[in-house]
Design goal:
This protein has a domain at about 80-120 and about 140-280: TIM Barrel (Alpha-Beta Barrel). It is built from 14 helices and eight strands. The chain has helices spanning about 10-20, 35-40, 50-65, 105-110, 120-125, 145-150, 155-165, 165-185, 210-230, 250-255, 270-275, 290-295, 295-310, 330-340, and strands spanning about 30, 70-75, 135-140, 190-200, 235-240, 260, 280-285, 315-320. It has an eight-stranded parallel sheet with strand order 1-8-7-6-5-4-3-2, sandwiched between helices. β4, α9 (about 210-230) and β5 (about 235-240) form a beta-alpha-beta unit.
């Protein structure tokens, strides 16, 4: 089923209301990103710019608009990447790959991105293409912890935490400062209405590193990043996969996250997360991606509708997948979820 939401006028204030845990006049939709197949379907009748620099980003904006979202995601320029290798789309990769920062000498000579030299003029060029009522939600490249793991390798990091904690702190600080500088530049743009602080912290059963180590090396940088976003009057959405629920008190009370994104039924269903946490933090997205892949469109529609009925009296919920819409999600199942939110 193909369903366009272009008859719903975008209103970013609806998403702001969700992040304030308030009710909205209609269901609000949220997706981190979709895939090229869905973007093509949603923009099949659109005229796109000839300039390749703009084309893909404008296509994404128009796809979000036509699907009924009140925003579009702004993904970081490639120059902001911390890595010396590319991750191919859809390709699995090991957390042990890493670029091999194993010493202070390698750390000091690493070709770090400079957030102050990243060309963000694309935001000015995109402004005329953003439909009235919409804003962009900006994400970073991989977050602080994800980037450290990519740069070191997960197993090497585990050893390094014991053998050389000073080096671990230095790597976290190098990554954290650059992400803080990048977000501090993003929030200066009026078309950026909110930010996603994206950083996967866990497995299905626990966090990747201990809570104590997260408190020492990770949370100080997340707090600084969130503070600079909030100081600009913009809300923060934490996208983090894995079982991070033992940390929810810190996420809400200390990091002051406005909305949590990423849910898996194998860890905690979005229905259970809603019942447990919605009085403290907004629940963003949540329909499990594996469920969407394996179910019929009718089953996806029924669960999505049920979630909207469950949350409707209280607000503070935006309908979407538990993570994103990768290529292997059947488009008809994605559109079945969207139908529930657009009726």
């Amino acid at each position: 089923m193909i369903l366009h939401g272009e008859n719903r006028n975008p209103d970013f204030n609806r998403l702001i209301q969700v992040l304030k845990r308030a009710k909205t006049d209609v269901p609000v939709l949220f997706e981190y990103y979709m895939n090229d197949t869905v973007y093509d379907i949603l923009t099949e009748n659109e005229k796109l710019p000839d300039d390749p620099f703009l084309r893909d980003r404008v296509k994404m904006i128009l796809a979000f608009r036509n699907a009924g979202y009140d925003f579009a995601t702004f993904l970081p320029p490639n120059e902001m990447s911390f890595y010396q290798r590319d991750k191919k789309g859809g390709e699995s990769f090991s957390l042990n790959n890493g670029a091999g920062i194993t010493s202070k000498e390698i750390l000091d000579s690493y070709p770090w991105p400079d957030p102050f030299k990243i060309d963000l003029s694309i935001l000015d060029k995109l402004a005329p293409y953003i439909p009235e009522g919409m804003k962009l939600i900006a994400s970073g490249p991989d977050g602080v912890e994800e980037s450290v793991i990519e740069l070191v390798g997960f197993e090497k990091l585990c050893y390094m935490i014991v053998d050389n904690p000073d080096l671990v702190k230095s790597i976290f600080d190098e990554v954290g400062q650059r992400l803080l500088d990048y977000y501090s530049r993003l929030v200066e743009y009026d078309i950026i209405g909110a930010c996603i602080n994206n950083d996967d912290w866990g497995f299905n059963t626990q966090t990747l590193i201990s809570h104590e180590d997260m408190e020492k090396w990770l949370f100080p940088w997340h707090k600084k990043i969130n503070d600079v976003i909030h100081a600009a009057g913009k809300p923060v959405i934490l996208h983090s996969c894995g079982n991070i629920y033992p940390l929810m008190d810190r996420i809400v009370d200390h990091l002051q996250v406005d909305g949590k994104h990423s849910y898996e039924d194998s860890i905690m269903s979005v229905e259970d997360a809603w019942e447990k946490y919605h009085n403290r933090i907004s629940i963003i997205g949540g329909i499990d991606v594996d469920f969407i892949c394996r179910s019929t469109p009718e089953e996806v529609y029924k669960r999505s509708k049920g979630m909207l009925e469950r949350t409707g009296l209280d607000g503070g919920f935006a309908l979407g997948t538990g993570n994103s819409v990768p290529e292997y999600v059947p488009p008809e199942n994605y559109f079945a979820m969207m139908k529930a939110g657009l009726e």
